[in-house]
Amino acid sequence: MTNTPDKAQRTYLKDYTPPDYLIPKIELDFDLGEKETRVRTQLWITRNGNHSRPLILNGEKLELASVALDGKVLDPQQWQRDDVTLTLLAVPARFTLDLETVISPITNTELSGLYASADTLCTQCEPEGFRRITYFLDRPDVLSVYRVTLRADQSRYPVLLANGNRVSSDKNGGRHHVIWEDPYPKPCYLFALVAGQLQFIEDEFTTQSGRKVQLRVYARERDLPQCDHAMTALREAMAWDEKTYNREYDLDHYNIVAVDDFNMGAMENKGLNVFNTRYVLALPATATDQDYRSVSDVIGHEYFHNWSGNRVTLRDWFQLSLKEGFTVFREQQFSAAHGSAGVKRIEDANLVRTQQFREDAGPMAHPIRPDSFVEINNFYTLTIYIKGAEVVRMLNRLVGNRAFVRGCNRYFEHHDGQAVTTDDFVQAIAQASGHDLTQFYRWYEQSGTPRLSSHGQFDAKLRRYHLRLKQVDCDLTQAHPALQMPIVTALFDRQGNPLTTRCDGGDEAGHQHTLNLTGAEQEFVFDDVDTPPVPSLLRGFSAPVILDTDHDDADLAVLMGHDNDPFNRWDAGQRLARQQILAWLDDAEDRALNESFAAAFSQTLEGDFNDRAFQALALKLPDENYLGEFIEVIDPEAIHQARRSVAKALVSRYQKAFLAHYHALKTPGPCRLDAASAGSRALRNTCLTYLMILEEESSFERALMQLKGADNMTDTLAALAALADQAHPARDEALAYFLERWREYPLVMDKWLRVQAISRCEDTVQRIAHLTEHECYQNDNPNKVHALIGAFAHGNPLRFHQPDGAGYHLVTEQLLATDPKNPQLAARLASAFNLWRRFEPGRRELMHQALERIRRHKHLSRDVSEITDRALADQKYQG
Ligand code: PHE
Ligand code: ZN
Hints:
This protein is α+β, with helices and mostly antiparallel strands and 879 residues long. Helix content is 40%, strand content 21%. Strands 6-5-9-3-2-12-15-14 form an eight-stranded mixed sheet, with no helix packed on it. Strand 20 and strand 21 form a beta hairpin. Helix 1 packs across helix 2. It is globular and about 85 Å long.
């Protein structure tokens, strides 16, 4: 493939025009084979409006066998074709088009379109994979009703699935066919088929209106015993969406298929979700508690898309966050309802702060509704997904949950069967709630993380507390106007007791108030305040912003010990910890623990929490990448050392308490999966990890014992990870033991690769280089590449950025080897160099060279070029 000039073209939102033609109906007939698949397509096409423009269909990597218009075969003068289109210059206002295309699943390494995963054939069409199956108007605002015939060899492909309802089947000799019809018009990105030797588990769900839905999870036979949790999660998700949004499922079948080779987590194809096995399979022995939660989350996510994405779909790809941000928000609500809501919120907010803020601070920064892109595949980003979800969460906060749900229902009902925009969504909420959301809409148009500062003043005489909030980056220009956002706030006295106050002249006394910040600078007044308060601001991380407060250490200690908002309680501890680490970073000589921090830490460690998952989170120090955001010029090694020294000082001082927990938290009997047991495991493993830092022989023995004795993957993996981080013979013993036990389980081997990829040991780079040759590693499988190279590049700052440049070199090599096969996968590695300008000169120069080397590479994909071009052009940090 060559870089033709039009490949580098940029697509702009402002250029959107409705399609020139519509395709209300399509029939597809597949003759399936892994080397060659023949696709016969019949399209019912109508002209959209009054014009004489040509019909330009999208198509890539297709062999075209024939074209017929209204049944008459066209000769080649009547159409034109290039690498990416098929053009018919003159067509009637209404006609049928018959096409025959030939494709080759087995050579499809991009995993987009129809491809082979082991001996299963499956499809991935979002965002632009359908054009690799047949010529079509491959854009989300062209909605069609599908009828699909699948033909194949019966013994090789006994299971034949497509979207919708199965209407008939037949067999003949060794061959068979199945016909599927999907009554709901859909864009082609939601088309799917699967063919293979799959088994299934089955269940049934009766919807609130009495429709019986047959539920199936398909997997390879050996994986079938691991599918029950996914099925349970599906049933929970269906019930939850009925209860919470009054949305029910609309087909007779809901099929989920798990495949090993998949670029993303999963895909919401109508009635036929295709999943990465990673988000389906789970048994205690093979999946961690975190994996269990991720499986339910992703199962829920794809199910919720049936309304937020499928029934109401996107006008164009600039609207991606309309379905993704909204669906992630729904997924988060679902998840919070089935576990510890506080812990869930901390995890989600932490991800925004540590990962999305980084994206927004670098060259790939974009609004949740971007204005332009080169390669849409590069925009499946944290910004679109999780900042998008935060924006929906703020809407919910500002108008209140009841009005929000009314607005969502209005949106679903008014736009059912349509392809719409983020503006339509916000309008529906505005209309149902009576709120004017014009200012709020700027969140969709503006990139970057807003910065706020707060300043409080107590007036004892008037029993009043004045809180001034300032949007720091805001100016009077169009580029940074003030945003509207909810700042959820409560006051405490200095003993940590919640205060009841009235806010802004209102007569309703309460503890917590939602401040509606709209101005660049705004003052809020709290009445009935009898004592100098400690404010708890931005509770629940009520807006995705950076907030600088005037809290001192003592204030933070009060909040860390007493705040009744889990996020802020956790965050107070994180801020103390961060200050401690940054202080040691500045001063390597005078390294004494700050006593307020140490006291607060020991309270968290020794306190009696009923939520141990919370306690475990509260004991973790902020991660190294996040700490880097508070430093002008990043030196990853110095950050690592400072953080590790703080951890070491803490575990030296409180070793007894860590040990006592470790022993007390061991639960007798076989592993239980309830939230409380998972919380105990999390806390116990946090203790194990801290204790390892002391590098005592007894710690290695303890971890080895845990590794070999555990009956669940959470404990096994925690022990393995702790040992893999130590240059000690126990490391190799542990890795060999684990390999021997789990080598037949690809998902478990991903964990084995990952712990080695993020090991802080000095030989990590060499070891990874060896592992790329290991039988368990395949450089064309996305899970493997993420586990080894992705985890290293994004999750091991110490070794990726080691000063000799060996880490950069390794990632560059792997990226360039991956790019010709799977550009999307390569592009996700390329983003590891995004923040190159933030680093100290030595590393900055090496990262710059790596980027230049990638950019100069011949035949670089559009995906990788867009990332590296933006990184190299980034001016943000130039002095
Ligand atoms: N739409 C999928 C989701 O649920 C993600 C995805 C995007 C999968 C592109 C494959 C390709 O988030
Ligand atoms: Zn999604």
